[in-house]
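Support case: user asked for a sample of complex input and structure output to validate their parser. Sending the pair below.
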Amino acid sequence: MQATTGRGVRPQRPLSPHLQIYYPLINMVTSILHRITGAALYFGSLLLVIWLLAAATGPDAYNYVASLFATWPAKIVLLGYTWALAQHLLSGLRHLLWDTGAGFDLKTVDVLSWGTLAGSFALTAAIWIGVAMCGGL
Amino acid sequence: MAMRTPLKTARYLGSAKEGTDHFWKQRVTAISNAFLAVFLVWLVASLTGADYATVKEKLANPLIALGLLALVVSGTIHMRLGMQTIIEDYVHDEGPKIVVLLLNTFFAILIALVGIFSVLKLSFGA
């Protein structure tokens, strides 16, 4: 291959493999989920401040927002928000563990990946079943 | 004659002169958010389906108001830093990047202001 120093001319060097080459490993999946759930929680913060602002505005505003949140589409969004929070929390704790330098052997990485997923679904189910059993839904 | 090399001014600081500031604040708020998220879930779960008077009274409780203020501050700092990382990873053109980074900052501040104002009004308002 002929080398070039010309600007704007991109030499045809081999590229490193990217996403479409790799088999999706569980560690990859939880890594991208950490980012996706983080972004979801970012926009989901609107739900929290809308709820707080409605409560601060008065009974009419609060009852209106509460009735909106009680609709089925909103409940599905709130269910998703709960799971995103649980997943981001558990996966974030895993990152804090990794920050100490521990937990990097492949076995532990896999166990923690599956653990965060199982934990987030279990937590979400527990929270919603708990609220439902107390008559909150 | 100055005996110091320029290395002294560069040491411990990146090109943005912030060093590990972003990394460290992300971790500090991650730890506080871990506790505050549990508090939030408990608070929202306990108020689901409650009437307005109950909600207002609970949100005006000093301990709960302080918890909410901590959550709003810690949460908005954390989410701004996180979204900044996402933007810097995917938006490479200088112009659009600066615009989106500004929008990110404004959004985080908007969430923080509305959250803080609402909590304070619930505590101190008529």
